[in-house]
Amino acid sequence: MGSYQQYTLESASAVDLVVALYDGIIRFLYSATAAVERRDEGARRVAVKRALDIVIHLQARLRMDVGGRPAQALSEFYASIFSEILQASQSASLQKFDHAIECVRNVRDAWRQVAKDPEVNPAPLQMSHNSNSGGGSAFENDGYGSDSGRHSSWNA
To answer: Rounded to whole angstroms, how far apart are CA atoms 125 and 104?
Structure first.
């Protein structure tokens, strides 16, 4: 990982990191759809595994004792999206992958709104040379939030 990317991740708030994880799920699902279109079963499976790994990580990090009903709702969402991604992969269905992407994007967009609220998401401690002096999410203008197409060139 390049020093800029490493600095961006190290200086990001917890909410910004959650947004980045959702972006990762979306990218891997786009990779899976591209693999379906190419009829590349191996690439589809790898992309789906990586998306599911992120979903599992997010599920494991939920604090049910602190989060209450929102944590329960996220837990149910993660279980549902896990199942939907598996079904999309098993049937190699572009339609099911597209639906999963839309669901993840909707929840990611809600997290982005949270990231914009300074009361909920205070600015992380800044090191000396911060290129994100405009406020907002650390990922807002650097390409992390882009999911504009199926053929992403992002590599994990």
So the answer is: 29
Q: Which residues contact 96 (CB under 8 A, 6 or more apart)?
A: 84, 87, 88
Residue 20 to residue 11: CA distance in whole angstroms: 13
d(CA 101, CA 64): 25
Half-sphere exposure of 65 (CA within 13 A, CB side): 0
Q: What are 59-90's pLDDT values in tens digits?
A: 999 999 998 999 999 999 999 999 999 999 99
In single-letter form, the type of residue at position 82 comes to F
Tokens of 130: 């911060």
- Integer Cα distance of 24 and 38 in angstroms: 21
How far lies 137's CA from each of 5, 41, 56, in Å?
Answer: 14, 36, 24
| The domain made up of 14-116 is a member of CATH 1.20.120.340 | yes
Every domain of the chain and the residues it spans: 14-116
Task: State pTM to two decimals.
Answer: 0.74
| 3-state percent breakdown (helix, strand, coil) of the chain, nearest 5 | 65, 0, 35
